[in-house]
Design a protein that fits this description.
cytochrome c-type biogenesis; mainly alpha; 7 helices; 0% strand; 173 residues; Four Helix Bundle (Hemerythrin (Met), subunit A); cell inner membrane
Length: 173
Amino acid sequence: MMPEIGNGLLCLALGIALLLSVYPLWGVARGDARMMASSRLFAWLLFMSVAGAFLVLVNAFVVNDFTVTYVASNSNTQLPVWYRVAATWGAHEGSLLLWVLLMSGWTFAVAIFSQRIPLDIVARVLAIMGMVSVGFLLFILFTSNPFSERVTARCRISRLKGAILTRCCRIRG
């Protein structure tokens, strides 16, 4: 269940990053201050969703959730807890997720500490940071998903039994 939540949070982060990269720029084009100001909210939501996904992955390592391929490949039950936490970003998928977490953290920091900068400039900067996040999130979701689940031997056997039973029923029926 937790890997599905992590994957859902990454999909939510992608949607928020898409909104962050389009909606404030639309506000700049229309001169709408509310649309431009929404970039700060989107930056906060992006950071929270990516942080949630990262915490789900850390949890998968801590509790040894070996249904997740990334955890099964980079951890074992004999590792101390701190090594398992560090293994979260120890390989390709986790380090990309950590990169997106740090990038969304900086996006949120820009949103917080840019109160004195004109709103149209802040909206443009946050939109560009959102576009970069969109690229990384698409890459993570489609090529390097840390939440992909393993197909266990039991699942393979069940599928094989199902295929055999289906063929037998066709022959008899």
